[in-house]
Every structure is written in structure tokens, then in C-alpha cells.
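Recall the central idea of this unit: under ordinary conditions, the amino acid sequence of a chain determines the structure it adopts. In this exercise we apply that idea directly, starting from the sequence alone.
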Amino acid sequence: MAASRTATRTLRALRTSTRPALTAAPRAAFQQGGRRLYSSEPAKSGGSNIWAWAIGAGALGAGGLWYLNQDGASATPKVFTPKFEDYQAVYNEIASRLEEKEDYDDGSYGPVLVRLAWHASGTYDKETKTGGSNGATMRFAPESDHGANAGLKAARDFLEPVKAKFPWITYSDLWILGGVCSIQEMLGPNIPYRPGRQDRDAAACTPDGRLPDASQAQDHLRNIFYRMGFNDQEIVALSGAHALGRCHADRSGFDGPWTFSPTVLTNDYYKLLLDEKWQWKKWNGPKQYEDKKTKSLMMLPADMAIIQDKKFKQWVEKYAADNDLFFKDFQSVIVKLFELGVPFAENSERWVFKPLNA
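Accordingly, the structure predicted from this sequence is:
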């Protein structure tokens, strides 16, 4: 795994000097400094100025909330409406902590934060208008216990100190912002973001089975993604997120990374699908593929389905040949995914955040 991290950082350093036009200006590699503190000091007792959060962000839309400013005997309600720079501060907090624990996976929490944002959004049903990122219902059972969400407690726990430091942001907006931040910091395209999601309770949990089953083939993929409102091209573009991260035998049952650089977003996922020779892995686990050459990479049955289906494969070939095209289409489709079913305020604005190491 140490060798994988070294290779990833080398690729990241190279890519910062050759970033596609669609992305931001070249960024330096992540800071490898000491531990960063992420929570403020405890409030001192007996102070004359105490902030008491009174009404959650859901009451006022995109992050607005009341607080009581108590000074002696007086208490004056005020409205705090977060602006771009407030969300940029949350972004920066997440970005600054992504690589704090070198022993976590490939040295970054980025991939698991992308997966959290993806799975929070991917429960949407266009017919019933239920599910999606609005609600952050994975905080509760039974949704938190669904098999497809195994291992995502690590991502939710990672974001808890951020929520404590910025209590005005909803979990729903925070989880998506974590995904946006991680994609950009892992050298992907800039992802436009807009707040306005409201948290909901356990009654809004979605039923199991709405997320893709990696052991299935193209018919299953279409059933899942068509339910959300995606077409074949968008299904393949979203699949490119598998360039990031790895599977874990103690979570999904599958094991291994899809690419040699699991903390850098590239079109390598598509290239590897087409260029490598894949064979069934011989092991005591669920059916998955391994690359014949190194036996260190894996593909899932659902991954292989997109090159076994002619309509899917044409898009795999296009993205394998053109990273800029992949980034353009990925940017568009991930924004669509993250916004499914969200009741944004009329004329709400999308923002693009400055990466921490721009």
C-alpha cells in the first residue's frame, strides 16, 4: 500500500503541471505537515457573550438560522445567512484534513467521502420523488445498515468534527460538499455546488435496493439509473468515479483498487477496462475480476458490463481516448446526481470553490 501511495503522489505531482483546461490552475500536492486541529477551544464559562443556536438551517432554507446573542439580561434574535465565503471555509476545513491519517486506505479520506455523497444521492426515485441527497437519512437505521452503505460510517464520522465547527450547515449540504471538495482536491474537474438541502428524520429513510449491486450486469444498471433519470451515456460517465478508492473485503466483500492511482481522478478506469486482460480472481470471496498482468487491480461484474454492452462501450471508448471529454461529462452528471430531488430556492446560485492548494 505504501508503494501505491508513492506512485499516486508521483502521478499527482505530474498532473498538477498538466491539468486539463476544464480544471483550475495547477495545484501543489497535498500538504504533508503535522496534525491539524479541527475544533475550536471549549467555550469559557461565565462569559458575557454566549451564542445559543436556536433554529436549524431547515427552517430558513440554504443554511440560514437564528441565534440568540445574549449580553447580560438581554437576548436578541438574529439571522445568520451563510455566504459563499462561509461555505469556502467549510470546504477548506475538509480539504485540510483529507490526508491527516496516512494509514487510512491509500492515505486519503477523499474516495470514501465521494462514495458517501454518491450513495446519499443515488437513492432518488423520479416517480415517487423520494430519496436523494435532501435529508441525509443515512444517519439513521435502517438506511445506515443497508449493505451498499457498508463502511460509510468512516466518512460520516470524519465529517462530524466539521459539523461541530460549522453547526449552521445541514448534514445534507455537508455530505455533498465533502464529495465536491474531495473530487476537486483529487485533481478532478471543478464541481459547481449550491446549498439548500434540509435534514430529515428516520421516517424519510429509503428502502434497501435503490443503489447499484456490483455483482449484477447491464440490465440491472439500467433499471437503477433509469429510475433516477439517467441515460446510457450518463451511466458510463458516473462509472468513472471508480478511478477512485478501493473495495474492502470486510465491507462489500470485494477487495482491491480499480486503478493504480486511487486518490487521483483520471480516465484510467476506462483505459484499464479496455487495455488490460481481465480474468476471474481465484479466491474465497464473491466473483470479481483481476488484471492478468499484475493481479493487483480488480473490476466488478458491473464494471465489465459496460464494455460487454455495445451502447455502453462506445462511451467507454470515448472517455478512454479523451480525458477532457470525460471531465466535462463527469462534471455535468455528478452535479445532476448531487441535486436530484433537492427543493432549491428559486434562482439559487451555483458556486465553484477554490481548491485548497490552487
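Confidence is low (pLDDT under 50) at residues 19-61.
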